[in-house]
Every structure is written in C-alpha cells, then in structure tokens.
Amino acid sequence: MHHLEVAELSASYNETPVLDRVSLAIDKGEVVSLIGPSGSGKSTFLRVLVGLLPPRSGRVLFHGVEVDYRSKSAVRAVRDRFAIVFQQYNLFQNMNALRNVTIAPIKVKGRDRVEVEEEAKVILTKVGLGAKLGAYPDELSGGQQQRVAIARALALKPEILLLDEITSALDPELVNEVLDTIRLLAADGMTMLIVSHEMAFVREVSSKVIFMADGRVVETGPAAEIFDAPREPRTREFVSKILRH
Amino acid sequence: MQTDGAYVIASFFSYYNIVFLLDALVATLLLSLFGCVIGAIAGFMLAISRRSTSLPFLPLRIAAGLFVETFRRVPFLVTLMLIFFIFQFVRLDVSLFIVALASVCLIATAYITEIIRSGLESVHRNQWDAAIAMNLSAAQTLAYVIIPQAWKVVLPPVFSFFILFIKDTALASQIGVVELTYAGKVLNDKGFPASLVFGTILVLYFVLSYPLTRLGAWMEATLAPSRSR
Amino acid sequence: MTYTLQYGQITGYVPYLVGGAWISLQIAFLAFCGGMVIGLFGAMARTFGSSTIARLVRWYVVFITNTPQLVQIYLIFFALPDLGIVFSPYQAVLIGMTINAGAYLTEIQRAGFLSVHRSELEAAETLGMSRMQSVRYVILPHIIRVLFPPLSNQYIMMTLGTSMAAIFGVEELTGRAFNVNATTFRSIEIFSLTALIYVAITFLATVALALAGRFLVRARMRVL
Predict the structure, then answer these.
(1) Neighbours of C126 (CB within 10 A)
(2) Domain boundaries along the sequence of chain B
(3) Do B193 and C69 touch (CB under 8 A)?
C-alpha cells in the first residue's frame, strides 16, 4: 500500500481549472519531486493536499484510507500528517525562531511547553540554527528563515513533508545551506514531496520525478529517465530548455 | 456689557468660571475617550464578523455591513438627535451625557470597525496560510499571529479618530450636555463678550487636542514607520 | 412623542427635505471652492514662501485643525458684531466653513506638492520642456491624480459638516428636519429619514466622484 496515493485530482480556482486529473503515488521514505514550468499547478497541488484549496473531484488516499476534504475534521486530521514549507517561508513575524517552531505543538496538539521547547532546540540545532533561537524573522537571512520554516514543519512530526519551491525566493549564495538541510532529511528517511526548480538537486535527491504542465501530469519516472531520456515531447522540450543553461 | 475691559476679563476668569470650564473640558475629553474605547471593542467584534466567511455568520455580517456603511455617512448632529428621541421614545431615563455618549459610541464603532478591518487585512495572507496549514484555529491565528501584528497598524488611526472626535463632541452642546461648547454658550448668555468666551473655548479645545495630536504623530512614527511618509 | 411609528405622516415632507439636501451640497461646494483657493495659497506659502509666512500659515493650519468648526462659526457669528461686522447665519456658516476647509485643504495640497519627485522634473527638463510646459504636462496632471481621492473625501466630509448650519437656523437638510420636527413632532421618523437622505447623497456623491476620478483623472478610487 502506498503511503500517499492521489487519483484523478482536479481543482479550480475561481472557476479557472488549475489541476486536471492529477495522479501520483508516494511510498514511505520516498523523495518525489514535481517539476514543470510556472503555472503548471505544482504549488497548487500541494495546497490542495493541505486543504488550502478544496478539490473539485478525484481522491486522495492516505495509507489506503480516503480523505474527505469536505469534512472539516477530516481536513484537520490530514493536516496533522503533512507539514508544508512555503516559498516565502511564511514565518510568524511577531515571534522569534523558537516560538515559531513551538507554537503549533503547544497550542494545537496541547503538548507540554518545556518538552516541546527542548525538542525544538534539538531540531533548530540540527538545521544549524542553534545559536539563533531568540532571533526574530527580520533579524535572519532568507536562508536562515527558510531553515526555521523547515524546523517548524519538522516539529509537527509529519509523515510526509511538502516543500513548495523553498529555494526560489533565496539569494543564490543562500540556496545551498537549505539544500544541505534537505539532503540530511532525505538521508534520514523522511518521506518528501518536493516542488523545485533546482534541477541538479532534484536529480540527486529524488527517487521519482513527475513533470507537470498546464495542471496535468505529463510524465512520471525515475530521475535519470526524466532528465536523460524523457518520453513525452513536452517533457523533452522543458528539459532541453533547462539544460541549455 | 461694555464695561472696563480688564474688569470683564478678571470676572470672566473667576474661580467659579474656571472650575466650570475645567469640568466641561473633562466632560469633552471623557465623551470622546469612553466613546472611542467602547467603539474600539464593539468595532473589533464587528470587524471580525465582517471578515467571517462561514454561513451562520452571514446575517451578522450583513447587519454589520449595513450598520457601518450607514453611520459613517450620517452627520453627528443627526445621529445625536435620533438617539435622543429614541431614548425618549423607549422611556429610557438617562442623563444627557449618556445620550451623547451612546451617539459617540455608535459612530466610533462604525468608523473603527473599518480601521480594524483594514488593519487585519494588512497582515499578509501568507501568515494565515502557514497558520491554517498547521491546524491553528481561526481564533488562535487571530490571537497569536494576526492581532500581534495588526495592532501596530490599527492604533495610530484609532487614536487619530479619538482626537478628531473631541472636536465633534462640540455638537453635544445642542442637547444640553455640559461640555466645552455648551459652557461657552452659558457664559456668553451670562453677558460675557462673545470674543472672550469663544476665544477661550477655542484655546481650551486647542490645549486638549494639540498635545494629543503630537502624541499621535509620535505613535505613528514609532509603531508603523512604513506608513508615515 | 411617538406612540407608534407613523412614517405616513411625514412622506409629504420628503421633497422639502430633499430640497434641503441640495442646499447642503451647495454650501459644501462653495466652502470647498473657497477653501481650495485658501489652500492653494497656503500650500504654496508653506512650500515656497519665506519662513515667516510659512510659519504663520502653519499656525493657522494647526489652530484650525485642532479646534471645532462649530465654535469657529460661533466666534464669527457672535463675536464679530461687537466689532461692527454682522453676518447673516448663512454667511457666517459659509465663511466659517471656508476658513475651516482652507486649513485642511492647505495640508492636502501641500502633500500634493511634496509628492512630485525631483526625478519627474528632471525628466521633463531633459526632454527639452520649458518650465511652463513641464508644469502643464507633467506636474499638474500628476498632482491632480494624486490629490483627487483626498479632495473628494474632504468634500464628502464637508457635506456632512454642513449639518451644523442648522444650529444657526440655516435651512439646509438638518435645518429643515428641525423645522418639520417642530411642526409634526414625529421626531424619530424625521431624523431617521434625514439620516437616510444623508446616506443617499453621500453615497451618490462618492460614486459620482469615483467615476469622475477614474475616467477623467485616472485616479484609483474606492466606493464602498
């Protein structure tokens, strides 16, 4: 049984279709990447999974059990199993790094504060920010903020980590520190769904790559195949365009 | 009453008159202050209901919308008269100050609702996205994330409104509330020359309003520097 | 005293009240125009004038904007006769509102002047425009576009502000409402109707100004 299975998922935003019968499957410990041109629906797909956009049709199955996105409690339950890191980090500006990481476990899961803070310190140290616990977002660089965002996601102990173009808003010299963190997580066996433009990284770290365009899945396959020998013409077009630079 | 000028001025600034004027000044200040505080509390609740999207809240949302759009477009004098006669109609026997205060509250609520609403909206959508994705409830998100960021944008305009309303309280004189303007009319009717009386009243309003205006400017510069150009 | 609300009794007075609304709009308009003239000179004085004149204008603005319009009109209406200058209620209200508006409009126009960036003037200069031309084709349109929303808002606020003319017996909308009230004693009905008429005229004025702003001046304006 797949960890996560999506079948024919469609969604619209204000009457405009943005996802068209998207299907994929992720197994435990897999790192799957979504690539494609802007507007292809990759980020939208992640947003639908986390319940930020309601799906029009299709099914999402977690460990074989279907998720009913129309039910508020089901959406809350599925959010517990995912954690998402956004392109713009979306850190809470009025809280320091530690508080950003601890607020959800304490307020949503009702866990004990001291325990949560200890865990948070460990996670923040793991992403290399042990010395920045009390720093506020406006005191941190983009790369540091994004790592806090990752720590915040990890503190929720998700089953699957969703990463939405997390390096796209960063200055080039800050990208690697974030990618290193992701490499660490992949090595640790974290199940991840990554949307990214960093093709070299995608190729290195993914077991499976999915190419999307115009809200549809065009091609799915192992990283080497998608990049070196794509089957679909659309995929070939995209890949050749990136590889050119 | 054209007797010796110095005598007139001296008798104008008698102990009794000074106390009378100071009492009136306090009444003016309190009218605006209490009105705005209550208006801020009510305004906050209305702002939240105007932003709600769930169905059961819809009638409240519409009512709030109508209330706000109406009372922002009616002159204070008319609102005052309306409240005065409604209180009379329902045989509510309260002091004139309370009648005026009720009117101030209504108008303050209407204006402050919009200030708060725009303040809440000024917090970037992505703060909501992150909070919702982490399963923070709407109430928790407001309490822990949105309001701590929004209040800095909300406080300066609310304070500005409070200062502005100090001037509008002058109209409460028309129903007999003993605030500064009414005090002026009383003294003028007593025979003191209008230039002296109303000149003094203007100065008193100025003394009340100007320092607060400077405080407000400092507040805006400190709390929301991106807004002050 | 109203035992039951009887709107039927006052519907006959609606045309009378609406006529008053028209007068309110006129008073506001006249005061606005006068205020704009004062404001123009005031803004120029504060931006370009000598330090003494600029300071005087600043004191004028600060004093007027920190004191109530009603008391300003009281001063004009009750104090000036002692100096031999007597104004009718309508005149006193108009003059008071004009002087009051002048202060606010000085500040609004000053903000408009300050909003013109150096770079725009330089760009116009490098394109070979004379001073006169750069003012006419670059600066003026820019200022008008920037100032249209706050000026519209000021006019709407002034329309609401005309209601205090009733205190002096002027027969604009609120004044007429008082008259009808004295005749029929249907207070709640009258004042709620008056309130509605104010909402209607301000709403219409807002829409009209927003449309004018969007099409004539390319200023972006909200309605609701």
Answers:
(1) 8
(2) 5-223
(3) no
CA distance C98 to C92: 10
Cα–Cα distance between C197 and C174 in angstroms, integer?
A: 10
Residues in chain C: 224
Q: Which of A33-47, B96-110, C124-138 has the highest mean pLDDT?
A: B96-110
Give the one of B126, B133, B140 whose C-beta lies nearest to A107's C-beta: B140
B contacts of A93 (beta carbons < 8 Å): 127, 149
Contact A86 B130 (CB under 8 A): yes
- A152 Cα to chain B: minimum distance (Å): 9
Closest CA to B111 of B82, B72, B57, B76: B72
Residue A60 CB partners (closer than 8 Å, separation 6+): A4, A5, A6, A7, A9, A49, A66, A67, A69, A78
Q: What is the pLDDT of residues C136-156, one digit of tens each?
A: 777 788 888 889 999 999 999
User: Which of B132, B134, B137 to mutate against chain A (most A CBs within 10 Å)?
Assistant: B134
pTM of structure: 0.86
Encode pLDDT of A93-119 as tens digits: 999 999 999 999 999 988 999 999 999
Q: What is the DSSP letter of A231?
A: -
DSSP-assigned letters across all residues of A3-31: SEEEEEEEEEETTEEEEEEEEEEE-TT-E
A in contact with C (at least 3 C-beta pairs within 8 A): no
Q: Report the pLDDT averaged over residues C21-34.
A: 96
C66 contacts in B (CB within 8 Å)?
167, 205-206, 209-210, 213
List the single residue in A with minimal CA-CA distance to B127: A90
CA–CA distance from C25 to each of B88, B166, C31 (Å)?
31, 25, 10
Residue among B76, B82, B97 at smallest CA distance from C2: B82
Using pLDDT thresholds of 50, 70 and 90, give the confidence band for residue C107: very high
Residues whose CB falls within 8 Å of the CB of residue A153, separated by 6 or more in sequence, listed in order: A83, A84, A85, A161
Give the DSSP per-residue string, C64-92: HHTS-HHHHHHIIIIIGGGGT----HHHH
Task: Domains for chain C: give ranges and CATH numbers.
Answer: 13-217 (1.10.3720.10)
Q: CA C99, C100, C103, C105: dihedral to nearest 10 degrees? A: -100
Fold of B5-223: MetI-like fold (1.10.3720)
Candidates C67, C62, C90; CA nearest to C166 is: C90
Sheet bearing A4-13, strands edge to edge: A16-26, A4-13, A57-62, A65-66
Chain C hits for B184, CB-CB cut-off 8 Å, are 71, 74
Nearest to B134 among A88, A95, A156 (CB): A156
Burial class (CB in 10 A: 0-12, 13-18, 19+), A11: buried
For residue B131, list chain A residues with Cβ-Cβ distance below 8 A: 92
- Residue B77: which of A93, A173, C181, A12 has the closest Cα? C181
In a 3-state reduction of DSSP, which class is residue A71? coil
- Interface check A158 vs B, CB under 8 A: no
15-44 in B: which are within 8 Å (CB) of A? none
pLDDT at B229 over 50: no
Contact B74 C70 (CB under 8 A): no
* b/e per residue A195-214 (b: at least 16 CB within 10 A): bbebbebbbebbebbbbbbe
| Chain A from 24 to 83: CB within 8 A of any B CB | 50-52, 76, 79-80, 82-83
Cα C118-C119-C120 angle, rounded to 5 deg: 90
Q: Which residue has the tokens 């005031």?
A: C42
Mark yes or no for CB contact A90/B144 under 8 Å.
Answer: no
- Find all residues with CB under 8 Å of C190, minimum gap 6, and list them: C10, C13, C177, C180, C181, C184
Chain B neighbors of C191, CB-CB under 8 A: 78, 81-82, 85
Give mean pLDDT, residues A41-48.
92
